[in-house]
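Everyone, carefully examine this protein record:
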Amino acid sequence: MIVYLAITAAVAALAIACLFAEEKPTRQATAAMVVVPLLLRLFLIK
């Protein structure tokens, strides 16, 4: 379970970095849609 949470946190961190690095609003919106489920999984909310 700890490994799963660590991988989820790493992917979420990369997606958040992508969110702030992108200049196009469409790509920012896509990154935000990816981040939301990852954060919910990280906080164990199903």
